[in-house]
Amino acid sequence: MALTGNVVVLTGGVGGAKLARGLVEVLPPERLSFIVNTGDDFWRLGLKICPDLDTLMYTLADVVNPETGWGLRGDSLITLGSLDRLYRVDPWFRLGDKDLATHLLRSHWLRQGCSLTAVTACLVERLGSGARILPMTDAEMPTLVDTVECGLLGFQQYFVKYGWQPVVRGIKHQDCESARLSDAVLSALLAADAVLIAPSNPWLSLAPILAIPGARDLLARLSAPVVAVTPIIGGAAVKGPTAKIMRELGLEVSARSIADFYQDIIGGFVDDKRNEAFARQGLRITQMDTLMNDLPDKIALARGTLEWIGSWTA
Ligand code: FO1
């Protein structure tokens, strides 16, 4: 039986956006809200860059670069090239010419005093997807990665400049003590009939959301089911540093470790059929194909997950 009611998705970058793309094919926009990690955000050349928000905005508006999963389709790097050649500005963070339009407008509106939530709603509205995309907080709460080789690095320095190669010994969420879930996020969670945790990196993309004071407690107390989808498939991450970070933090690279990370908040776990099955008391676990290579895969995982949760109350 299909799940009826409101679905809220906690998500980060490219992996989460894939599931989101499937969900918008299965549920009407008014029943879906996405709460997005903003720990990856930073200021670059006077512009506010929000990679995970943009990845989701572009994916759901069908303008994302299909090769990278982030940035805009058919973009170019002429401005970045000029900054490099004329002014020796290091082009380590590839801001595309078309993508700059988003960063310019966002920064302009933020400087006028609008909240990130309001700015994001305006950008989404103009991109035309009709999605409800909510930054986790309006506060700045940058993720810092503590590494063996370079010490503390800003998230994008770790991820892009150093290609996530330094060994991670800790992850910090700067200023998290004073951050608050936005009112829009709180309302969405309180009206949720189910909460999904997307298959994004738990330590880099989901931990910032859970680090906001009260977030973990609120999720643990919700009467709606909270269900996580594994980012580990066949004992490895599909892409990116999830498995590497797990090893560096001394964790077993397995779906079991992912379920443990969320243990106090989830009532259900969607594991991949390639992983070794496991059990946890009080946790419903199902196995399905969670690898999302194309749109039919994304829709199948979205539908399968919602039908599974729907079957709990059938
Ligand atoms: N990722 C890269 O690997 N290299 C880049 O130069 C890069 C630029 C970039 C620009 C805008 C944007 O929205 C995202 C961008 N990303 C880039 C992706 C981003 O760093 C990561 O995917 C996320 O922060 C992790 O979720």
Could you describe the 3D structure shown?
It is a single chain. The chain is of the alpha/beta class and 314 residues long. The chain has a domain at 7-40 and 130-313: Rossmann fold (3-Layer(aba) Sandwich). The protein contains twelve helices and 14 strands. The protein has helices spanning 14-26, 51-60, 78-87, 99-111, 116-127, 155-161, 183-190, 202-210, 215-221, 242-248, 255-261, 295-313, and strands at residues 7-11, 32-36, 42-44, 47-49, 133-135, 143-147, 151-154, 168-173, 194-197, 226-229, 232-233, 236-237, 268-272, 284-288. The strands form four sheets. A seven-stranded parallel sheet has the order 5-2-1-9-10-13-14, with helices on both faces. Strands 7-6-8 form a three-stranded antiparallel sheet. A hairpin with a 2-residue loop joins strand 11 and strand 12 (236-237). Bound molecules: ligand FO1.
